[in-house]
Amino acid sequence: MPGMYRVRIFILFLSGFFFFGLGGCGNNPEPDVADYVIKMGQDVISKEDFTLELDLKLTAYPYDFKKNVLEYNQMVLDLVSILSEEIVLLSAARDRGILVPGPELDAAEKFFREDYPEDSFEKMLLENALSYLFWKKKLEKNLIIDKFIQQELKDKIEIKPEDIVAFYKRHVGQGSDKDSSGIAMDENRFVSQLRLEKSQESYDEWIMGLKKQYPVEINKKTLTGFLIDMENKKGTTDD
Description:
The protein is mostly helical. The protein has ten helices and four strands; from the N terminus they run αβββαααααααβαα. It has a single domain, classed as Triger factor/SurA peptide-binding fold (Orthogonal Bundle).
């Protein structure tokens, strides 16, 4: 993997979004727990999980971001959408038996750490208020989701010869024969890039089908506690 990929992983960690969505989801022996925020079958994002994800997401915003009530509340709702999508993907991946073995997870962590010499990785975690266990759990989920999307979407995209010709002509016509990382593309790279583009185009329809199979429940009462009451905020401001 090119170094640019490591940078992308870190940026998406901070935004709470990996490829098509990232967040906290796990098996909970008590799925009816009252303080959950998102639930799908036995998979639950608890109030505590959501708080951690929200705190992580806030590191990408100015410290006084909460003063922008509308934007803050929209950010919280966007996070709910992202985590809801993630819980669907992880639940579906589990049902397909998709796992990340320990050695594979360790190799991914080692690859990521290569951009952080000495103790700079630990400093990065500290600066972003991330625990190592939280970070590694997110990495594992990201890898599972990537595997699932690769297996269930990308690998099933049909690539016809005429698609390759049209894609090639379009790139050459634009004066570009390099991929997004700046590497010159041969036929295999053109096919890979085309498959990625077509899978992105198909994603919305694909994920909608999964959401019907794995309906998510949002606990509106618990979620309200994370939103800023605009009326009370207005009254406080007027005072």
